Amino acid sequence: MDIMGQTLREGLPALGLELSEDCQKTLCAFGEAVVKQNEVMNLTAITEPSAVAKLHLLDSLTVLTAADLRGKRVIDVGCGAGFPGVPVAIACPEAQVTLLDSPGKRVKWLETILPQLGVTAQCVTARAEEAVSQCRESYDFALSRAVARLNILLELTAPYVKVGGAVLAMKGAAAREELEEAKSAIKKLGLKVEEVKDFSVDGATHSVIVLRKVTLTPNAYPRRYAKIKQSPL
Fold first, then answer.
1. Fewer CB in a 10 Å sphere around the end CB: N or C, the chain?
2. Is 195 helix (H, G, I), strand (E, B) or coil?
3. Which residues contact 86 (CB under 8 A, 6 or more apart)?
4. From CA 233, how far away is CA 214, in angstroms rounded?
5. What whole-number distance in Å separates Cα of residue 156 and Cα of residue 80?
6. Alpha carbon 51 to its chain's center
7. Closest by alpha carbon to 128, among 138, 136, 120?
């Protein structure tokens, strides 16, 4: 029995998720593809099979316990090697997933590998603060993992989400500290904290912060990234 598949299968019950054998195989096939591509492209520092299952695949799937994404438009902002967006697209094929990132080589690779695995997702090469002009407030959910501190991340994600939708921000042990730091940004961007769901991932606490969109985000946001970083909301 392969280690990645076994680790994935053993970790699903803790998340309350049941996935078909085919779905689990596709998740592992994607994990293996990331590790293989990592030999020629810097995608991840995590390459050991059980760690890939825990820290990439299972960690990505935690968002499915925080919201029902079936039939929803979902954007993964700053998708990197495809986490969490690709595992979400595999485990919840009813979701309409868009993968957004600025490094063209990574996105091009995702465009190539996903059809080979039978995974459907739209891949977009663009900066988050620029691409939003074409699809402002048109998604039900914006996902993001390991992109920036929350007060910066929310300015990049909230404008994509329609009123009534939510930002699902994946964070580590500093989740509540970042929430406190982001109070002003949350208010200015039209968001409201709904829930913080904690998970134990490989012995460490990971969280999904659910921020509901309650009012339109002012058109002044997002600003240019240099400005966002220089003076977070």
1. N
2. strand
3. 30, 60, 79, 97, 99, 110, 114, 119, 121
4. 18
5. 15
6. 18
7. 136
Structure tokens at 128: 């988050």
State how far the Cα of 36 lies from the Cα of 14, in Å rounded to an integer.
Answer: 28
- Asked if 138 contacts 111 with a C-beta cutoff of 8 angstroms, the reply is no
CA distance 20 to 18: 7
What does the block give as tokens for 13?
Answer: 């019950």
Bridge partner list, 195: 210
* Cα 60 to Cα 85: distance, rounded to the nearest angstrom: 8
Q: How many residues are listed for the chain in this entry?
A: 233
Whole-angstrom Cα distance, residue 110 to residue 34? 10
From first to last of its 233 residues, the chain has per-residue pLDDT tens of 599 999 999 999 999 999 999 999 999 999 999 999 998 998 888 889 999 999 999 999 999 999 999 999 999 999 999 999 999 999 999 999 999 999 899 999 999 999 999 999 999 999 999 999 999 999 999 999 988 999 999 999 999 999 999 999 999 989 999 999 999 999 999 999 999 999 988 888 999 999 999 999 999 999 999 999 999 99
What is the CB neighbour count within 10 angstroms for residue 203? Answer: 6
Q: What angle do CA 106, 71, 153 make, to 5 degrees?
A: 45
